[in-house]
Amino acid sequence: MLASVATRTTRISRIGRLQAASRRDLAVSQYSQPPPVASPSSGAGYSGWAGWVAFAGALMVMLGIFAIIEGLVAIFSDKYFLVPRAQLVVSVDYSAWGWLHMALGVIVLVAGVCVFAGQIWARTVGVLVALVSAVVNIAFLSAYPVWSVIMITLDVIVILALTVHGSEMRATNK
Hints:
The protein is mainly α. The protein has helices at about 1-30, 50-75, 95-115, 120-140, 145-165, 165-170. It contains 6 helices and no strands.
C-alpha cells in the first residue's frame, strides 16, 4: 500500500515537471525563435494581418467599380443628384465630376488588382488615391450624402489596412 502511494506520488511529480518543462519550452519558442520563412508552397509564416491587405485590395477593386458607376451616373444623368450644380461645395458641372470619378475609379481598380499581386507601388498608389477619393467625396457630399459617407468610410479602411499592415503582404510574397 505504501509503495503504491509512493509510486503515484512519483508519477504525479514527474507529470508536473513535464508540464512545467513543456510550458517553459512553449514560452521560449514563442518569443526567442524567429518566425518561419514564408514560402508560397508551404503556407508557413504567413501573417494573419496579410488578410487585411488582401481585404484592402478587394475593397479597392470594389471602390474602383463604384466610382466608375458613380462617374457614369454623373455624366449621363444630372437629375439623379440631390442638389443642382450651383449648390455643390465646388461648383463644377456634373459631367466634370463624372469624368473625375471615372478616372479615380480606374486608377483605384488597377491599383487594387496590383495590391493582390503584392506590388509595393500599388500600396503607395492605393493610399494616395484613397486619400484623394475621400477628399473628392467630401466635396461631393451635398450631392450624394449617404453614398459619399460610405465611400469616405471605405477609403479610410483602405488607408488603414495598407499603411498599418502592408509590410506583411510583402513578407508573404518573398
